[in-house]
Design brief:
Elements lengths: L2 H25 L9 E7 L2 E5 L15 E4 L2 E8 L6 E3 L6 E4 L4 E4 L5 E4 L5 E2 L5 E2 L5 E3 L8 E6 L4 E6 L4 E6 L2 E3 L7 E4 L2 E3 L8 E3 L8 E4 L1 E3 L5 H34 L3
Antiparallel strand pairs: 1-4, 2-3, 5-20, 6-19, 7-8, 7-11, 9-10, 12-13, 13-14, 15-18, 16-17
Helix pairs in contact: 1-2
Length: 261
């Protein structure tokens, strides 16, 4: 059977996977803190009919080899952690990180997850939580007689009480990773540490390489719609070309089988 049939089939599968990734990026174009994903490919192994450098006669050798590739495969999906644009919301509990770093939140099972989505809320007890009710770490509790909340660029949270008193209620720290692309995505704008990401490095916002915290802002998705649309077009065309290769190989086999008649 012709190798081109299988090689083209791997190309179609790879482009379908790429389109799935692009669709997910576009679906999250308005998701706060979302980081786009890029699909990467590797070529498959090669069949060697003749190796380069094989002796021919005397001192002569083959200057080139005779190889045929067996297609392609998806090698990795890499998350790109470039910063998205900031959107002013005017909400005192909306926070954005201008640079490197993640907020820490505690999952119901006790694990710590990491996010760039700073759209925090207050629960019934005044604790800062995500939209899903996960507690911000370190825990920040806002007194019930608070008039206004101020969060500085280094994460210090101060509140003004109804009697005019200014009170410090805690500091929001950030973490960063040596290899953030190695984090595991679990949905809900959350990531988990893996062996590839390295250990979390905790620090103060705006210091030692950490980004500063900006109150009243949200970081938008870093998805570039134009680039994703171009990627969608190229994926579609590549898919069509691979399908055309299968049709052509099928026509050649049909011609071959017709010789017997």
């Amino acid at each position: 059977m012709m190798i081109s049939l299988y090689s083209a089939a791997t190309g179609m599968q790879a482009q379908q996977f790429k389109l799935d990734t692009i669709a997910n990026n576009l679906a999250n174009v308005d998701t706060s803190g979302y980081k786009k994903v890029r699909t990467e490919f590797h070529d498959l192994i090669y069949q060697h009919a003749r190796n380069a450098g094989t002796p021919i006669t005397g001192a002569s050798v083959n200057p080139t080899g005779l190889y045929v590739g067996l297609g392609t495969r998806v090698a990795a999906t890499t998350r790109i952690f470039t910063m998205g644009t900031l959107e002013f919301t005017g909400n005192s509990l909306d926070l954005a990180i201008t640079g490197d770093g993640f907020f820490q939140v505690q999952l119901p099972d006790g694990r710590i997850a990491y996010t760039r989505d700073g759209a925090f809320k207050m629960d019934a007890n005044g604790r800062l939580v995500t939209a899903n009710g996960y507690y911000l770490v370190p825990n920040i509790t806002i007194p019930n007689n608070t008039v206004s909340i101020t969060i500085s660029e280094d994460g210090t949270v101060t509140v003004e009480l109804a009697d005019g008193t200014i009170q410090n209620v805690g500091t929001i720290t950030l973490v960063r990773f040596v290899n953030p692309a190695g984090l595991k995505s679990i949905g809900d704008n959350l990531f988990l540490q893996t062996g590839a990401s390295g250990e979390p490095i905790e620090g103060t916002a705006g210091q030692d390489g950490f980004g500063a915290i900006r109150q009243n802002y949200l970081e938008k998705s870093n998805v570039d719609v134009v680039r994703e649309m171009v990627g969608m077009i190229t994926a579609q065309r590549a898919y069509e070309l691979n399908s055309r290769a299968i049709i052509t190989a099928d026509d050649m086999l049909r011609t071959l089988t017709a010789i017997k008649r």
